[in-house]
Amino acid sequence: MSAVLQLPQLPAPPLAWPSNEAVASLNHVTKRFPGSVVALDNFSLFLRRGEVVALLGPNGAGKSTAVKLLMGLSAPTSGTVSIFGADPRNHAARMRTGVMLQVGRAPEMLRVREHIQLFRGYYPNPMAYADIIQIAGLEGIESRLFGQLSGGQKQRVLFALALAGDPDLVFLDEPTVGLDIKSRRGMWAQIESLAARGKTVLLTTHYLEEADSLAHRIVVIDKGHIVCEGTPAEVKSLGSTAAGASKSRSVKVICCATAIPANRLLEISGVTSATLSGEITTLITSQSESTLRELLALDPSVHSIEVQSPKLEDAFLALTNEHE
Amino acid sequence: MSTSTLTLARISPLTRSLPIFLREARYEFIRMLRTRSFAFSVVGFPVVFYLFFGIIMNRGEHLGPISVAKYILASYAVFGMVGAALFGIGVGLAGDLAAGWLDLKRASPMPPMAYVLAKCSSAMAFGILIVSILALMGITMGHVSLSFGEYVLMIALTVVGVIPFACMGLAIGLLVPFSSAPGITNMIYLPMSFCGGLWIPLMFLPKFLQKAAVLMPTFHLGQLMLGVFGYASTGSTLSHWYGLLGFTMLMLGIAAIALRRLELNS
Fold first, then answer.
1. ipTM of this predicted complex?
2. Residues of chain B contacting residue A109, judged by C-beta atoms under 8 Å apart
3. Cβ-based contacts of A119 with chain B (< 8 Å)
4. What's domain A2-234's superfamily in CATH?
5. How confident is the model over A106-134, as pLDDT tens digits?
6. What is the distance of C-alpha B150 from the center of its chain?
């Protein structure tokens, strides 16, 4: 196990991880708000030790409700919530949990250093101050007032507050919203390093790329239900199935410039969809090799050919649309 | 052995909570002091009012045995501490609630009471600051003679007197949305101060207002503060303490209902 921990990259996928104990779970949770709005409907989610799970879904899907239930900020209408085998409001559970929420306005007249020291003080064994500053990339702005920071810097301070207690379980609600590309990559590296140290991470995001590159497991959620869950590869493949391609896992997207009309292209073996947009025709096929051979034979002047795996974004859109 | 574990279990939450509370209170006070819009208005209003009505208009004036500048010192001291409690706690809490900051605090292992007590202590500190500035102004500019004992009693009354209004702030902060919190707080604060006899001594108010003043917590705290100088005009000291206690219980009840409503909606 220590050999796994020393790996610089992401640890092995959760199924290969030595311990599969659930560190956090929602068991058949239904959350109904007054006015009978159902935010979550018989929803179950299990987080295993050391895995990074992304909760992916459109606005109003129930992502934040799930996080609030797991943090003990809200009580389920039915079903049970458990963190480290205890109620999420349990003090010992809170000692081992770190949270980054979407906060509209933190106290602006406190300095970065003061905010961090305040949160470190809540825990008996907090992370070393210097480590927090280094991990969250706050060097040089420790003496600034929170209100003077840029949006990205504010996010990094909130990330630092989630780390203050050196927690085993970290909830990150839209951690990179408002960050530029460089800061976002920096934040991703930090989230990966948390996972490499055996921490369990649940992140909610609407950045599909983020879920794809960070998570071991993606849970797609819409209207309080799980639409699908699996590794990023599985979710992509399920998504292309939903998009109308065959159930085969080897679905590819072929983009090319060709003079052949779409209705003729649909007759090629394996092609399930052909759309023309501008100069470029996009084909979805379950047998990419034979499709390419036939295409080249059919149109010798075909050019600008690209073969891609379906993007997570397409998968995600297809899945949530199908659900409607 | 079992006794020692028990004692340990009983003591450790306190020894753990005390430093958290102290740090929370210190940072809350620093935060409010740095928020100029808050610090200037909460300290500035009583100071400017006292300057006009206590010092410029009534310096050295006496009504029988009563020094007018000293009488008004008591009134505006109460006016100041009530403002510090209502705005610091009511508007501050509504803001933390609206921004989601309170959620982050609640999800942390911070003892919830540390948050409330820190806000209350910060309001007390502002109250002491206001009372001290007004007393200094009275002594240096208003020919007010104030004994050290009287000053100590004023401070002690400030610390206790902030509590009922802190509870009112709690109720306001939990009930009123942040955008309208400053306006609504003013709509409560200013009429309550006038009707409690803090701006104009009660005897100059219309008869029906004098009778209704019994319902005003500002009246009871004002009379207790005037009592420090021997200027109290109506009711026994005990009746004023009961008045404040009743008001505190009422506000805590409202705050508890508001909290329950919020929890049901979250």
1. 0.87
2. 30-32, 34-35
3. 108
4. P-loop containing nucleotide triphosphate hydrolases (3.40.50.300)
5. 899 999 999 999 999 999 899 999 999 99
6. 19
